[in-house]
Amino acid sequence: xxxxxxxxxxxxxxxxxxxxxxxxxxxxxxxxxxxxxxxxxxxxxxxxxxxxxxxxxxxxxxxxxxxxxxxxxxxxxxxxxxxxxxxxxxxxxxxxxxxxxxxxxxxxxxxxxxxxxxxxxxxxxxxxxxxxxxxxxxxxxxxxxxxxxxxxxxxxxxxxxxxxxxxxxxxxxxxxxxxxxxxxxxxxxxxxxxxxxxxxxxxxxxxxxxxxxxxxxxxxxxxxxxxxxxxxxxxxxxxxxxxxxxxxxxxxxxxxxxxxxxxxxxxxxxxxxxx
Length: 275
Ligand SMILES: Cc1cc2nc3c(=O)[nH]c(=O)nc-3n(C[C@H](O)[C@H](O)[C@H](O)COP(=O)(O)OP(=O)(O)OC[C@H]3O[C@@H](n4cnc5c(N)ncnc54)[C@H](O)[C@@H]3O)c2cc1C
Ligand code: FES
Hints:
Layout (H helix, E strand, L loop, with lengths): L1 H5 L4 E10 L4 E8 L12 E6 L3 E6 L10 E6 L3 H8 L5 E8 L5 H4 L3 E7 L3 H13 L7 E7 L8 H9 L3 E7 L9 E2 L16 E6 L2 H13 L7 E4 L15 E2 L2 E2 H4 L2 E3 H4 L7
Parallel strand pairs: 7-8, 7-11, 8-9, 9-10, 11-12
Antiparallel strand pairs: 1-2, 1-6, 2-5, 3-4, 3-6, 12-15, 13-14
The protein binds flavin-adenine dinucleotide and FE2/S2 (inorganic) cluster.
């Protein structure tokens, strides 16, 4: 019983950097104030609490190799996330976790990787992309497709520019609605997939975006003959406890907070309600 209670006690942490990235999304660098082991895999999440307000699941957006703190990026949508956005550098928050299963890094080693991100789906992918760039020789070709509604809504714009300038990263961006600054692709992200030359058996696709995006991206990847076990997705479900106790995240007999949020399409096909 006592060990159960411990699962719900947050570790205190300090916001050491807070930076507005877009109108709705803010970036936070966080450092734990209490000594305790903390390591994670890209794709895992934490429960982040604003003291006196509540807590919300948030994906870790930094590389697991970064040792002096973690980074998250949060969209302002409701009570918790608005309260978090109002906090300044130096403020104390709480965090629990890391929770869930992330991307299977060992299986990705040696493979070509195709990232498909829509909107804030770039947040969990950023953690993995940073890791891969820091261990570049361990992975094959790296392609990053990223779609946003407008050019102003791309997250981590400076990093995108830097990735695009690397000789060993294929970066393709697209927007739904261009503005006067935009000279790139216009239209849905799925249009970027047909021209790609992929080696299907050697490729893992990693997709994170709004629910509507998955079905259409899957149809394009089907045309490319990618094995279903090599298509990975991260699911966003309502979560409360994060530790398999409350059932809020449950789809049939699967607890997304425990077995996910990263799943293969081969697995998710058995759960038609999931995507
Ligand atoms: C595993 C996981 C990882 C996540 N990672 C991130 C992240 O890295 N960055 C980020 O900005 N957000 C992330 N989210 C979503 C985030 O948890 C919710 O936006 C947040 O909990 C909303 O809390 P709130 O109190 O501000 O909003 P509320 O006041 O609770 O709700 C405001 C509005 O947001 C909607 N909403 C609430 N929760 C969710 C949800 N889980 N998914 C979709 N819509 C929701 C509600 O329907 C409502 O319309 C993640 C969610 C999960 C489950
Ligand atoms: S969030 Fe409580 S069981 Fe998954």
